[in-house]
Amino acid sequence: MHNNILIIGSGGHGKSVLDCVVQSGRFDEVVFASNADEPEPIGGYPVLDERLLRFEDIRKRFDAAVVAIGDNRVRLSKTRELLAAGVDLPVLVHPSASVSPFAKISPGTVILAQASVNAFASVGAACIVNTAAIVEHECNIGDGVHLSPGAAIGGGVAVGGLSWLCISSSIIDHITLAGGSVLAGGSCLTRDGSVPGLYAGSPATLKKRYDFLEGIDL
Fold first, then answer.
1. CA-CA to 129 of 20 to 30 Å: which in 45, 73, 121, 160?
2. In what order do the strands lie in the sheet with 182-183?
3. What's the confidence (pLDDT) of residue 49?
4. Contact call for residues 177 and 183 (beta carbons, < 8 A)
5. Mean pLDDT of residues grouped by 10 in the chain (218 residues)?
6. The domain that contains 142 carries what CATH number?
7. Rounded distance, CA 175 to CA 177, Å?
8. Last residue within a domain, chosen from 90, 112, 137
């Protein structure tokens, strides 16, 4: 058991991560870090000024940390910086979630209530597998991906890094979605999305191309 953990981020996702952390029973002490002006305690837990914390301070003061920020790029960047500084970023799993012992989950990833990650799936670092999301067998999910509540991907699906699958979206078996893409809420991707962009509809089609991944190491 870790003794204490720092949750970096005090917004809505940070509160969901708090629930996961507390219900897991793995930590005796929970502290938030926020860049908000005059932050107030959250659920009775103290909030530190993130701007005053150096990575070395976090490593020495806390047994573990998690970046609980919804923005995929920010979450992945901070996670990588913390790992490089020697901070422990464990995988956090809500007790109601189901994770196969044959799945591979990388550091800094959070798997929330009633989510499912099945056999031989691989989930990258700093991912969010949100409430009731489903990652089927042999899927490959890149770093910094967010599967929103109710999102579901079939067996053998590949999702590139920094992608966002919005609420109740889905991808059928053995389909690939390019990194840095967004699959709109309720959409179903039935053919490979090989170009980074916004996909929407059922079946989903490319609505807008994205190019923000240039220079980002995935």
1. 45
2. 92-93, 110-111, 128-129, 146-147, 164-165, 182-183, 197-201, 204-209
3. 93
4. yes
5. 88 97 96 89 94 93 97 97 97 98 98 98 98 98 98 98 98 97 98 97 97 58
6. 2.160.10.10
7. 7
8. 90
